[in-house]
Automatic annotation (TrEMBL):
Entry superkingdom: Bacteria
Protein name in the entry: Glycosyltransferase RgtA/B/C/D-like domain-containing protein
UniProt source species: Sphingomonas panacisoli
Transmembrane spans: 72-91, 98-119, 147-180, 187-204, 355-373, 385-405, 411-430, 437-456
Stretches of the chain forming a coiled coil according to its record: none
Keywords: Membrane, Transmembrane, Transmembrane helix
Length: 469
């Protein structure tokens, strides 16, 4: 009977998965969704979007049919499986309140609403949670993870790595924290995994998954070179001339929010001198430009980091919430049903609250990490620390590798911070001083973010408006 009582989180997670699928069906198709499903139907793949996800989608489409529905099932089941395993492991360890809190994290609209949208970000979040859930299932009661448990977790973490180009910055630190106990070994292992993955990913995408090279690897250095060029008097190191820089400035082509203006029209023409450079040559040029203009590069990256963290920005900063209708298409991706549209519309105002500001979750993660580092080792503390290192590492990567400010890019770090906070609290109450200092740090972030939204003019509410903003 005791075992039955302790299995309630898994039962609840299964019910929540069924409810999520019923409410979300057939899923929300955004721009990326349409592009990937188009590749599924055509059988022609490129590496702009993760070909591993498109290949899986193609296999499921052939096997069971449907449009977005098969991938919706994959991400929702992974999402609730992971949370259910973590909560179940906590319940078995007599941490019932913590088990309930983990499931409550999954119900938070800022996470749940993105499970309705069939996207690589939601796929990554689900795969990461499933892998972590497998680790928690055995480790929370002191058992060794069996080899097949590690194999399943490796499959989850491997898929997470393949479905987002920057996921390695979260996966590698997490795996290093799970398999090593000394910090030097963790740093060495994590660093080696990052370098090996970055080197292998183009080969995997093109040779194994048969994806054509799309030029996506050139977007980061081109964005950064333009960002440097418009901030310096002599742009020679960027390989852009005075006429091109004048055009970039005239067209307001460099935006902290995203790189998109540089992809079209006069802005793309202004970067024409970079067209014939390979990704390697572009990164070499960027390295030289950074050496010559470190302050301009720092100003450019900090402006984007502030934007993607949604800190000192105006109200209405776009792309915090998914849309309630599908991106226009003629390939069978339908509009979401009434329950999904209702959920999106009713929860959308939360996009203007601290729940949807990654900077707040980043502050929470840093405070929680300080508390965890002061604790003796335990299964809960160790997994919490692994989650925090993973989330913080991914957030840190945005300082150098990021070209857009969509909230969905931060789903894993935000969820990792939420779950780690639950685990640290379940492991023991923090000291009064930790609560005071942590509360002060969070208050500073929230108050400054609120002040910027009061002072600054509202952001445009359309994509075209942001292009001209």
């Amino acid at each position: 009977m005791g075992n039955v009582r302790r299995s309630w989180p898994l039962i609840v997670a299964i019910l929540l998965a069924a409810l999520t699928l019923a409410a979300a069906w057939p899923g929300i198709a955004m721009y990326d969704t349409v592009a990937q499903f188009g590749q599924v139907l055509s059988g022609q793949y490129d590496d702009w979007h993760p070909p591993a996800m498109a290949r899986l989608w193609a296999g499921l489409h052939r096997a069971v049919g449907g449009a977005a529905q098969p991938m919706l099932v994959v991400q929702v089941m992974l999402y609730w499986l992971g949370l259910g395993l973590i909560a179940g492991a906590l319940a078995r360890a007599d941490r019932r309140k913590a088990a309930f809190a983990v499931l409550a994290c999954g119900v938070l609209p800022v996470f749940l609403v993105w499970q309705i949208a069939v996207l690589k970000d939601a796929q990554m979040l689900g795969a990461m949670l499933a892998g972590v859930g497998l680790m928690a299932w055995w480790r929370f009661d002191g058992r060794r993870v069996p080899w097949w448990g590690w194999a399943l977790a490796a499959l989850c973490f491997g898929y997470a790595t393949l479905v987002r180009a920057n996921a390695v910055f979260a996966v590698a630190p997490l795996v290093a924290m799970l398999v090593a106990t000394r910090w030097r070994m963790r740093a060495a292992l994590g660093g080696a995994m990052v370098l090996a993955t970055l080197a292998a990913m183009p080969i995997v995408n093109q040779s194994i998954f048969g994806a054509e090279e799309s030029g996506v690897r050139t977007t980061q250095p081109r964005y950064d070179l333009a960002g440097i060029a418009v901030r310096v008097a002599d742009p020679t190191a960027t390989r852009l001339g005075a006429a091109q820089v004048a055009a970039l400035k005239r067209g307001h082509c460099v935006k902290p929010f995203f790189w998109d203006p540089l992809g079209d029209g006069a802005c793309a023409d202004a970067e024409a001198p970079l067209n014939d450079l390979t990704a390697g040559q572009l990164y070499a040029t960027l390295a030289e430009a950074i050496m010559h203009h470190p302050f301009a590069y720092s100003a450019h990256r900090l402006a984007h980091l502030n934007s993607t963290e949604r800190w000192l920005v105006p109200t209405g900063w776009p792309d915090a919430w998914p849309p309630d209708v599908a991106e226009g298409n003629a390939i069978g991706l339908a509009n979401p049903g009434r329950p999904a549209a209702w959920l999106v519309n009713e929860t959308a105002p939360l996009g203007e609250t601290p729940l949807a500001w990654p900077i707040v979750w980043l502050a929470l993660a840093m405070v929680t990490a300080i508390v965890a580092l002061r604790r003796p080792r335990s299964p809960l503390r160790d997994l919490a620390l692994a989650l925090l290192v993973s989330g913080l590492a991914l957030e840190a990567s945005f300082a150098a590798i990021s070209i857009a400010s969509d909230l969905r890019y931060h789903l894993w770090p935000m969820m990792a911070a939420a779950l780690a906070s639950v685990l640290v609290l379940a492991d023991g109450a923090p000291s009064k001083r930790a609560v005071q200092l942590g509360g002060a740090a969070l208050a500073f972030v929230v108050v400054s973010a609120v002040a910027s939204r009061i002072i600054l003019p509202p952001a445009p509410d359309t994509y075209a408006g942001m292009l001209a903003y």
